[in-house]
Amino acid sequence: MNDRPLPTLFELTPLNEAFRVDPHGLLDDLRSRCPAHADPVSGSLVLTRYADVRAVVNNRELWRDPVRAEEGAVLQRRLIAETDLSKPRTSTTSILMLDDPDHARVRQPLSQALYARVAKFKPEVERIVDEALDRFPAKGEVDLMAAFCVPIPIDVIASILGVDHDRLAEFREWSEGVIQGLNPLRTPEQTAQMEAASEALSAYFTEAMEDRRARPRDDLISDMVQLQAAGAPLSDDELRINLTALLVGGNLTTTDLIGNAVRLLLLNPAELAKLKADPGIINAVVEETLRYEPPVDITGRIVSGDLEVGGCPMRAGQAITVSLRSANRDPEMFDDPHRFDVSRKHKPHVAFGGGSHICIGAPLARLEAQVALTRLFARFPDLKLADPDATPAWRTLPFFRGMERLPVIV
């Protein structure tokens, strides 16, 4: 009988060195021993099996907004610790945390405009990627995160929104600050950084929306104020918050998707050889990266009524935390799950969540990764890790997986 204590949810973050080095050592053990367990530290039911995780993220009856969580749901309540609950929720949070009917009301016009932009945006993404590659030295060492993976997603979303080129440096700085909104374990200093960046972005979008009403451009901000003028039921607050959310949701995660993919391909030369031989398999490469080393660890839901989850009876207000990372390596779903295999027969991963809250930026993230990887290896076919045996410099931001640095030789 195995009586070792189960790891708490907070031990399943990169703040724990064992998890940071090898998350699957802990996740495999947890999934095999107790795939659905009540975690007293986070105050939630933690699920690690693919079948349970997929059922939860696709269940449209469950709630997303942490204000609906019971007081004992520690992790969920931390997300609203600095929120003014006297204000309407649509004035204090984005579609990331909203429930219907507000979630559907706000998401529909935003996704309509965003997806129309993404559908014709490949040439602009190619331009941005090529400009980043042009700045590389002819030969020598480069930190791929700083030179490539970090700037590309910020510059892409800035271009979609219509940010003036001379404001890009400020925009990048604000983007880094607001990312702390996704860190429920942030320090007071990180909270201050987040709040300052949020205020600056709010002021920026207020000014930009007024400008686009007077002088429309070919950009997403213009699209949104025009939809609003045509009758889309969106307030200015809702526009500002959700335009900001596109930054938060897309920058860090797409940075990590690109960085993780490059590292995996360089560590698996046979898989990289497949891509070089046939760049047409790039979609499969990106999907296998999302399965094998997704940027996001977890997501959550709130129980909306009495039901059974993972064999556990639950009541309204109780919190569920699902491990997307564990689900994507579940051997019940994926053969040889710990092997990075770009030829793998496709089965749906859960890296983008699911249901009505499936990541709104998924099409853009996929496009950016596809363009970035194909053009990087076309330009630098002999790219290699500066030190293949070095311990990866994984970031310690809870519930995300990406590198601080990725030194390569071009």
Notes on the protein architecture:
With 410 residues, the chain is α+β, with helices and mostly antiparallel strands. The chain has a single domain, classed as Cytochrome P450 (Cytochrome p450, Orthogonal Bundle). It has 16 helices and eleven strands. Strands 1-2-7-4 form a four-stranded mixed sheet. A three-stranded antiparallel sheet has the order 3-11-8. Strand 1 and strand 2 form a beta hairpin. Helix 5 packs across helix 11. The mean pLDDT is 94. It holds the Pfam family p450. GO terms for molecular function: heme binding; iron ion binding; monooxygenase activity; oxidoreductase activity, acting on paired donors, with incorporation or reduction of molecular oxygen. Cytochromes P450 are a group of heme-thiolate monooxygenases. They oxidize a variety of structurally unrelated compounds, including steroids, fatty acids, and xenobiotics.
Short description:
Keywords: Heme, Iron, Metal-binding, Monooxygenase, Oxidoreductase. By secondary structure, the chain is an alpha+beta fold.
